[in-house]
Amino acid sequence: MYKKEMDIILKKNVTDYAKYVITDRAIVSLTDGMKNIHRRIMWSMYLDGLLYNKNRTKSVNACGSVLRFSPHGDSSVYGACVRLANDSVMIPLIDGKGSFSSTTTRDIQAGASRYTEVRLSSISQEIIKNIDKDVIDMVQNYDETRLEPTEMPVTFPLVLCNPNLGIAIGLASNVCSFTLNDVIDNTINVIQGKETFTMIPDFPTGGMIIKNDAVLKQIKDSGTGTVYLKSKYHIENNSIVITEIPYTTTREAIIESIIKLVKDDKIKEVIDVNDYSGVDGFNVTIDMKKNTNPELLLQKLYKFNVPIKSSFSCNFTVLLNEKPITLGTDNILKEWVEFRRKCVKRLVSHNIKDKEKSLHSLKGLEKVLLDIDRAIEIIRHSKNDELILKTLCTTFTLDKEQANDVANIKLRNINEKYILNKIKSIKELEIELLGLKDTLNSTEKINEIMIQDLERVKKNYGKPRMTEIITEEDLPDISKSDLIDDFSTYCILTKDNYLKKLLKRTDDVKLKENDEILYQTSSSNKSTLLLFSNKGSCYKLYQHTLDECKPSNLGEYLPNVLSLEKDEYIISMVSTRKYSGSLVNIFENGLIAKINLQSFKTKTMRSKLENALSIESKLLQMVITEENKDIDILLSTSEGKILSLNSKQINSKGMKDTKGVVAINLGEFENNKVVGYILNVNIDNSFTIKTEKGKELYFVLNDVAPTGKENEERTLLTYLSGKIRNSGNFVINCRATNDRVLEFNMNK
Which one in 219, 352, 465, 686 has a CA-CA gap of 20 to 30 Å to 406? Predict the structure, then answer.
């Protein structure tokens, strides 16, 4: 027993564990593009003879053999084995038979290891090529009973050909894959000292990648950057058929996301979504309602983050000399070329040693040729092996190795003809040795060997890219407004500043006690509400951002929604979609302002416009007139005069807070003001006037004008019509009767 501080124990153990996870489990090696578990699977299957041209064996047997080198369970080994066999990788290193699932599905698992069969794939030759010729270092396995390689002598940069994800302690790695042809072409460029080109990621699930030159250059230089992927689809019988999806998503995620949007009533165009994937390939079908624009529907799905469009965040953290480092593709290729050059040099050195050994043996045979009978006599009459070797060495001036080779020749081969045939190759071996030594000392020849290997791999295993390249220009030209559902709405503003967005007009609307409707307008979900406050500000509310309200609900409380000041409240509301036409403001002081609606349009999504309304006089009404469609307005004053005019007589202004022009002249009548109005006045309208002294008068505009003339033929409307700046005509002379009009109401 001994005492030790817990923090010291934790620090040491956690540090050791973190290092182990980084170097032995999570992060892929730059040199051979594998994690330890992948390397051990390849090595174990190689030792068991499970080569591409041999019979497969049950996965359970192959994975069990891997446990000779891996201290972890067989389930993790089989999981790694499945990944190397299915479409999780661009280049499968294992040739499997049976169900190995797919990276495009989350719920469909691979078959149990007792049912599936495996062997190394054809391209695995390039992974283990010359591994028995001392081209890489070997180390003891975990229980020191067998040797295993520290890395595989791959003949091409596998690290950039297969995607790899690793999460370690304190760092992570996310390496995307590139087309084998591009990787090899760029590697040859590095070897030859030429400029490399920018590679575009390619993924085993296909789909489309949106080309972004800036991001691709970032990946090339630093190994970081985010690329965006889209599903590949076509339209068939009013359905969107998705045939390829981004590498980072699954069919279940797509289907569940769409179903949720339909249930939440965020998407109304989808009837059904089904997974028809099978032997004919990937197929997720989205059935649409009739007359649905498929491109608009897809854009909505993108907007709601349905994973038919996804991203891949590159983080090229790899192991180099057992240390994690983040490199761009160019630097990865440079480091790999140096690794491969060492492998080739070790191969050449190994071949030189083999040739020298053979040459040395043949030169011994050459000496024996001088007296074959003597050699036979020595072997025949010596009492033991030791004496044979000693006598051969002394008689023919051989060393121990040469004497051993002679002594081991089969009896039937100890003849002049056999030995002559053997020593004929001495000259060839000497020439080959000179060539090998020259190669070993020549960078150009080493490079040539590497290039030949790369070109062979490209010729035998190169394939067209799977992920289609598109640009931003190839994407449909669809604006944000196109993505907004367009349907009719009915908006109500109350005196207490509650706003309701209804789907249809109704008279059965719930209001707070003592509250009343101030403004109401029929418009569409794509329209913008312009809300004017008592302080002259204009607030913009985009209708699609408002929740639909039931008539029984009070609605949105505008002071909270718009963050109004303490003594600020909304006094008026209009709705516009294209900002065409004019805004007509009727004020109590007899002025009318006509403002071009374009003045309220902004390039940005500004929600508040200052100085948007004149507040010198009380606003009685606000209305939008369509372009080139003016309206007739009837104004009634406290004096008892009325004037009907057309808004065409008022010039449109560009200043939002303009005071307006004199529409009706109020004259000198004390405290005279406009008390009422009728918009879009016509001959069939009627109205009622109430005065301070209790009079209540009813008028119909189609009646004869009250001029007192016997042959009067003019209607009341004609009698009241005039130009702006007039004071109008009396319908009741309050000046003479010392009275005052208090109310003017149009009869419904």
Answer: 352
Report the top-level CATH class of 629-748: mainly beta
pLDDT digits (tens, 9 = 90+) for 614-632: 999 999 999 999 888 889 9
**Which position among 17, 52, 115, 557 bears the catalytic label?**
115
DSSP class of 517 = E
Beginning with the edge strand found earlier in the chain, give each strand of the sheet holding 729-730 in spatial order.
Answer: 674-679, 632-637, 641-646, 729-730
Output the pLDDT for position 9.
67
Domain ranges of the chain: 20-154, 206-315+327-331, 336-461, 629-748
| CATH code of the domain occupying 336-461 | 1.10.268.10
> How is residue 21 annotated by DSSP?
I
Q: And the tokens for 618?
A: 């009380």
Please report, for residues 312, 396, 622, 642, 683, the alpha-carbon distance to residue 721 in angstroms, rounded to integers and kept in the order given: 71, 141, 21, 9, 11
Mean of the per-residue pLDDT values for the chain? 91
Which CATH architecture does the domain made up of 206-315+327-331 adopt?
2-Layer Sandwich (3.30)
User: Cα 113–115–116 angle (5° rounding)?
Assistant: 70
Q: Are 17 and 25 in contact (CB under 8 A)?
A: no
pLDDT tier for residue 451 given thresholds of 50, 70 and 90 = very high
- This prediction has a pTM of 0.76
| Contact of 177 with 163, CB cutoff 8 Å | yes
The better pLDDT of the pair 455, 706 is held by 455
Q: Which of 341, 338, 334, 335 is nearest to 450 (CA)?
A: 341
CB 454 within 8 A of CB 187: yes
Q: Which of 433, 429, 426 is nearest to 365 (CA)?
A: 426
Q: Are 191 and 175 in contact (CB under 8 A)?
A: no
User: How far is CA 675 from each of CA 86, 583, 631, 642, 664, rounded to the nearest angstrom?
Assistant: 81, 21, 19, 10, 12
Distance CA 654, CA 427 (A): 101
CA-derived radius of gyration, the chain: 45
Contact at 8 Å (CB) between 638 and 741?
yes
How far apart CA 303 and CA 297 sit, in angstroms, is 10
What CATH number has the domain spanning 20-154?
A: 3.90.199.10
Please confirm, yes or no, whether 677 is among the known catalytic residues: no
Task: Report how far apart, in Å, the C-alpha atoms of 694 and of each of 672, 691, 737, 743 are.
Answer: 18, 5, 12, 11
